[in-house]
Known about the structure:
Number of domains of chain A: 1
Helix content of chain A: over 70%
Order of helices and strands of chain A: HHHHHHHHHHHH
Number of helices of chain B: 11
Distance between the termini of chain A: 45 Å
Distance between the termini of chain B: 46 Å
Radius of gyration of chain B: 23 Å
Number of helices of chain A: 12
Number of domains of chain B: 2
Helix content of chain B: 25-40%
CATH class of the largest domain in chain B: Alpha Beta
Shape of chain B: elongated
Oligomer: heterodimer
Structural class of chain B: alpha/beta
Strand content of chain B: 25-35%
Order of helices and strands of chain B: EEEHEHEHHHEHEHEEHEHEEHEH
Shape of chain A: globular
Amino acid sequence: MTSATNSHSSTGLLSQPWRLWWTQATRLTAIEVRRNLFSWKASWIYFLAYIPVFIILIHVLFDNHLTSGMEDDTNVLAGIVQFYYIRLGVFFGCLGIFSRLIRGEMIERSLHFYLLSPVRREVLLLAKFAAGSISALFLFGSAIIACFVLMYSGFGAAGRDYVLNGPGLGQLEAYLGIVVLACLGYGAVFLLLSMMFKNPTPAAMLFLGWESINPVLPSLLQKLSVASYLRHLMPVNVAAQGIFALLTVETEPVSAWAAVLGLVVLIAAVLVYSCYRVRTLEIRYATE
Amino acid sequence: MTAMNDRIVFDEVSKFYGEVLGVNKISLSIPPGITTLVGPNGSGKTTLMNLMTGLVQPSSGHISVMGLSPGNAEEFFRNVGYCTQFDFFPRGLTGWQFLMDSLLIHGMSRSEAVRLSLEALERVQLGDAASRKIAGYSKGMRQKIRLAQSIAHHPRVLVLDEPLNGLDPVARAESIALFEELGRQGMHLLISSHILDEVDRISDRVVLITGGYLIAEGNIHQVRQEVREKPMQVLIRCDHPELLASRMFAINHCVEARLHTDGKGVFLRTGDIDQFYSMLNGIAAEGLVKIEAVAPADDDANAIYQYLIGSDGSAS
């Protein structure tokens, strides 16, 4: 590309109505977050997110907490994040949240109101993705914080010391970072699947199968998995045993920054393709 | 910069849903004013409106609305409002929230959105119900709130798919008065409706389609003239309708006569309208019958629709 062309491109980009797009995107996001979080239909996602919190609460209230058991509880917490949240809770929660954004509105026959607004379809799609991400992060992020706080509260001063002066806070940061990436990664995939299929659930089940068999695939194909990147970011490694072994991804060693970068690139690629598809999305409610 | 003109243009537009024909090679150039889309169920009216607003993509051909394409959503939908016949809304919203959400995503300020929402609610006379959930609205109220949403941002083109459905007679009259007012203000109105008698009164043009094909288009009277081979019906108010009917049958190609229910007029159907009027003048001059009024009885969209498409929806 010549410098003249470069200059023209940059002028073109600068002359786009970014301010308007930002205003529209923030308002759309606010509307969609309201719909995602304050709806009876979302109650099963609240259940998915908070059921481990309830179980840990029972554990805190009724089990003995000796300081020597802290390592066990740390492993249990890591197992909950690794096996429950990442492989099941966040997966199915994001399936519910993100497939509602486009396909859900097609089924409810209300998507046309958005498509008849003076909003670029790409802005609409990205705003919906942002809304889904915020909703999922709010639910699963708060649930993981609650799990973490409850788990160590039972240990009293020793628990506080582990969190504030030991590795606890760093582990919490890592868990939250993993949840952020999981929500964005699964969200992007499910948003795309909901545009491609009338019922995205079978495709999501195939995706779950893909995530499960990913470790036995060649190295190149392992890069097309959300869970395989997240596995490398876990602060506490839990050896898979029994039925959990089926849900565990053992990929080639990858550094943390490479895992984050790989997942971000994967999310960006999926979103770019979704933007391309949304431009030609048609409203045909009769066939829904 | 996008070139603006004042027409809605369909250029050889076809739409297929798989192997099913939606519309086939439709070419139209619609000037400002009120245009009625007439056709039986499944004729392609809604497809045409959805194509025009980008809700479906044409299989071939090109569409522009005042020089704009739906692909340029920001500019297009500032100028176009579409009141669809989909009777569904985002869940849990009141009428007010629905209007405000719609306007806020235009990017306008909150105070401007409030002003336009109030104005739109007043125009459709739904102000009292604005704070209620749409789920609790009657069908007529839902129709009104959709209409309010489509006109709230002051579009230059308004597309209305069956806008009178579900409205009671008073609301229907109010809506028609609103359409007339919008038409007078120079707005493009494209209306599809089965209640042809009412929409016909305010339409500048009709577009007749059936089975996805364009049958006729233009000014209602022009279209009627184009189907001259079809007998036309005329109502003559006079003091001796039976005598007039017998005279006209004797000297003109009248094919049908029917007395008005009040006995003070007769409907005559003729195959040669020019000769009919000439003969009628002669009879009036003779003084045998005192003629009070003469008016075409089927020079409207409904009659033309029946002539061209037939009551069963198949083009004749």
